[in-house]
Amino acid sequence: MELKRRPRRLRASETIRRMVRENHLRIDDLIYPMFVMPGQKQRVEVSSMPGVYNFSLDEFVIALGEVVKLGIPAVLLFGLPESKDSVGSGAYHEHGIVQEAVRLAKQHYPELYVITDVCLCEYTDHGHCGIIDQGRILNDPTLDLLAKTALSHARAGADMVAPSDMMDGRVAAIRETLDREGYSHVPIMAYSAKFASGFYGPFREAAGSAPQFGDRRTYQMDPPNGNEAMLETALDIEEGADLIIVKPALAFGDIIYRTKERFGLPVAAYNVSGEYAMVKAASAQGWIDEKRIVMEALVSMKRAGADLLITYHALDVARWLKEEEHL
């Protein structure tokens, strides 16, 4: 039998495999999430996320040096405030923990692209992403506080804001406020397709943001729904979103694909804490090849259509990619 087409010809060596590879990971794809907290000389490892830390501001600046040295272009900042209250006032305080972290980052590394998470859950004593009244999360009164938070981040020097609360109309409220106050140049990366997922557990330990009652299913999307994600994304784009986040990433490759195909905007896949923790736990047991699994998972997100990767693996991935450059 004579075979005219033999796909294996283009798999015969590592050289030809690299030459015809369809999707690639690049250091420029990476956004590294970081957690900042009050205090000094504090670098507290998150027990469920080996290698991920809560940094006091002085340690945060030191850690940024490694980020910049590796060539990672952007960080996404989350804050742990000194105190919490019912309206999350630490989120929009002029000298809040994230605001101070932004100032330090831009002072020491002005070329580093600093993105801030805009939400209230880390700052409220009830752990929800909005104002509470008799057990209900109030949508519209929360919008003013989210807009104030985004504005305070922009004033501190943030390059981009990323609202993660999933309140209806929050992108419009933030865009209107930023434009009115002279920050029309600051883009919004919206958590448009954010699902009420079981993959977030370790993050809530890191950020101290577990809800004190109930859950977040009344504002984050139900995981079986795909069309709803398209609706949320369309609304956010209409309201002024410049980039779209799909979160989580690993179990929602179809949503990444549909979002990119339908809307064409830059899409960021958030490789979330539970995905990271599972890989780290299995690797610690010797059950998997960590590097191979991480790279395969992240390239699957690129293959699905993601332009950017928000991942706690960013430092390791950057090191691995640099090592490969020198082979």
Report on this structure.
The structure is a single chain. With 327 residues, the protein is of the alpha/beta class. It has a single domain, classed as TIM Barrel (Alpha-Beta Barrel). 40% of the residues lie in helices and 17% in strands. It is built from eleven helices and twelve strands. It has helices at residues 14-19, 57-69, 97-108, 139-156, 170-180, 201-207, 227-239, 253-263, 273-284, 290-304, 314-325, and strands at residues 30-37, 43-45, 53-56, 74-79, 113-118, 131-133, 136-138, 160-163, 189-194, 243-247, 267-271, 308-311. Strands 1, 2, 3, 4, 5, 8, 9, 10, 11 and 12 form a ten-stranded mixed β-sheet that branches. A two-stranded antiparallel ribbon has the order 6-7. Helix 3 (97-108) links the parallel strand 4 and strand 5. Helix 2 packs across helix 3 (97-108) and helix 4 packs across helix 5. The longest helix is centred in the middle third of the chain and has 18 residues, at 139-156. The chain is globular and about 75 Å long.
